[in-house]
Amino acid sequence: MTPGGHEPDPLDAVLEDPWAVWLGGRTRTPLHLPEYRRAAVLVALTREPDPRVLLTVRSAELPTHRGQISFPGGSLEAGETPVQGALREAEEEVGLDPGSVTVLGELDDVFTPVGFHVTPVLARLPAAPRLALSSEVAAILTPSLGELRALTVLRETRALPDGQRVPLYRYPWRGHDIWGMTARVLHDLLEQGP
User: Is 23 left (phi over 0), alpha (psi -120 to 50) or beta?
Assistant: First the structure.
């Protein structure tokens, strides 16, 4: 109960969340790539003083992106929004209960060289969410943002077919190599977030 005797509004906690404040104070950059396949990933941060980010190691048995580190996510189904797709995929891949997730909003869209247009969905989780691996996931990683910020980031620039040069990042964390789209999204969070 609040001092006035009213039940607290759950939205108040979201509005006071520093990640929600950060997200609300920036302009999201969408992409328009109609020839690319739409996908979404869940960028889930735990509710702790030094939040942990939920990452997966993809199974070596998958047809694509074998063994890569990624956020839970995948292709959108017909009529699905990025939020719906990210929550569905996280439940399928790691057993994350959508009811335990507080969605804060969408980050800047990114694309992959293999033709995916991805919308990262920023969300908050309990400090110790209940998770269960699917056959698509070999392991779950939960590095803290502090650990990732302390790493020496490997950077390079690559030219796209149209000549545009784009930065690429690699985060070597505890024997794992976080790279590609996952590293780009992490880089934005770590460099710009609260």
Answer: alpha
